[in-house]
Amino acid sequence: MRSVYKANPHVLYVRSVHEESEVMSVRNETKMNNKFKDPEFMTAFIEKYREMRNLWKVKHPQYYIKPVRKSTLERLLAFVQTFIQEATVEVLEKKIGILRNMYRMEHNNIQTSLRSGASADDVYVPRLWYFDKLCFLDDQTEARESLSTLPSTPPCTPPSTLPSTPAEADEDQPGTSILEEPDVTIWSQVYYF
């Protein structure tokens, strides 16, 4: 639906209703983002999220049951809508994903600085003010099971009777030790064809 109006008698301006709704949605999203940045709201939101274990705890029995997760998300949405009336489930899922990603990035930065051998003064300090509030997510990142394209054969395991060091080898065990001299006659034979 379009409406045409004249601001200047020489130029026609066309204003689209669709464009106005896009501008309004951008404004609403900005307003919601500002409300999500409020420390008082974020603290309450994180606590409420922490209580709903089936949304974040991978080994929770109801983590993979979609209808249960959806109803839990709707309860969390009802809580969020007391502060932000225009919030939706999609916005809520997006915000949870952003929180989790930000926490994971900060956590990975800390782990990387610890592995690099940095001194205690050089360890990465997280910049998120709510980082400590999300510490319950520490062990919730689960690596996916890898798929192998190789044929499934049992792994080759060396016999348990082999010595762990050459010094432990004694004459009763089959095979040669690394310390023994090789048979020179084998290496000195030359074959001509």
TrEMBL record:
Spell out the InterPro entries in the cross-references: MADF-dom
In residue numbers, the region (Disordered) covers: 147-179
A Pfam family name for this chain? MADF_DNA_bdg
Bias (Pro residues) ranges: 152-161
Q: Residue limits of the MADF domain?
A: 44-142
What is this protein identified as? MADF domain-containing protein
Q: Name its species.
A: Aquarana catesbeiana (American bullfrog)
